[in-house]
Amino acid sequence: MPELPEVETTLQGIRPHLEGRVLRGVDVREARLRWPVSEALYALKDCPVLGLKRRAKYLLIQLAEGQLLIHLGMSGTLRVVEAGTPLRKHDHVDLRLDDGKVLRFNDPRRFGTVLFQAGAADHPLLEKLGPEPLGDDFTGERLFDRSRGRKVAVKSFIMDNATVVGVGNIYAQESLFLAGIHPSRAAGRVSRERYDRLAEAIKAVLAKAIEAGGTTLRDFTRADGQPGYFAQSLRVYGRAGQPCIQCKTVLKADRHGQRSTSYCPQCQR
DNA sequence: CACCTTTCCTGGTGGC
DNA sequence: TGCCACCAGGAAAGGT
């Protein structure tokens, strides 16, 4: 599952292949993604690529005509291949470049998106996004201010993209453990001091994950076995029923908005 | 084979 | 009563 670190890694991986190139055209084999692939993409022809950016989990490819938005959803991947490379199952969209290479979007579950926003304005999907977790405008103070009076579980609160972007299920659980906060606690009933700790925990976990090259949990659990960053660092995620690494209390499992949550009932209050 | 995954949207509710 | 903010739940699809 691509979390923010994986998206960042993908961006860095494709950037050298796209910067300075010209987008010759777009081939769409399957337009039924999370939203239909933007019709306007079909008409794009010979567009110089001006730059690449990441915003939350969106990859943005900037053209003079507008902006391409790519979201990997749950199962999306981007690869740079030579033109003519045989198609695999679920290879839905190709961006053809002027050097004979192709940026190929593959997504079995089709929760991803490939959209186009004409002109200079931001796409509506980007308008309501909160700050980047690693930016200076994401602070404990902001979490505190925005949470007053809110009854929603603090875990759901920090996973809300309007609060801060890019905090997925794994990072939310790990950050709450590091900060010693019970995931079910009402967001409005967490003190300023504890939100300071939580903001720092979120930054630390994400920064380390990006540093590790965005390797995901599932990659570690696959058979090739190389123990990586998360395998060693995960303190609560997926460990319900096992002892807390700090106090040996058996970790509990809970559920917030359809998502599983593990936590230590002793260390997290 | 039911479950699990992300994100946005919808509909219901409660407060003012 | 009317409106808005808030929050829970639903939907998409396929691999495991």
TrEMBL record:
One of its GO terms (molecular function) is damaged DNA binding. The active site is at residues 2-3, 57, 259. Binds 1 zinc ion per subunit. DNA binds at residues 90, 109, 150. GO terms for biological process: base-excision repair. The keyword DNA damage applies. Keywords: DNA damage, DNA repair, DNA-binding, Glycosidase, Hydrolase, Lyase, Metal-binding, Multifunctional enzyme, Zinc, Zinc-finger. InterPro entries: DNA_glyclase_Znf_dom_DNA_BS (IPR015887), FPG_cat (IPR012319), FPG_Glyclase (IPR020629), FPG_N (IPR035937), H2TH_FPG (IPR015886), Ribosomal_uS13-like_H2TH (IPR010979), Znf_DNA_glyclase/AP_lyase (IPR000214), Znf_FPG/IleRS (IPR010663). The keyword Plastid does not apply. It catalyses: Hydrolysis of DNA containing ring-opened 7-methylguanine residues, releasing 2,6-diamino-4-hydroxy-5-(N-methyl)formamidopyrimidine; 2'-deoxyribonucleotide-(2'-deoxyribose 5'-phosphate)-2'-deoxyribonucleotide-DNA = a 3'-end 2'-deoxyribonucleotide-(2,3-dehydro-2,3-deoxyribose 5'-phosphate)-DNA + a 5'-end 5'-phospho-2'-deoxyribonucleoside-DNA + H(+). Belongs to the FPG family. Involved in base excision repair of DNA damaged by oxidation or by mutagenic agents. Acts as DNA glycosylase that recognizes and removes damaged bases. Has a preference for oxidized purines, such as 7,8-dihydro-8-oxoguanine (8-oxoG). Has AP (apurinic/apyrimidinic) lyase activity and introduces nicks in the DNA strand. Cleaves the DNA backbone by beta-delta elimination to generate a single-strand break at the site of the removed base with both 3'- and 5'-phosphates. Monomer. This is Formamidopyrimidine-DNA glycosylase.
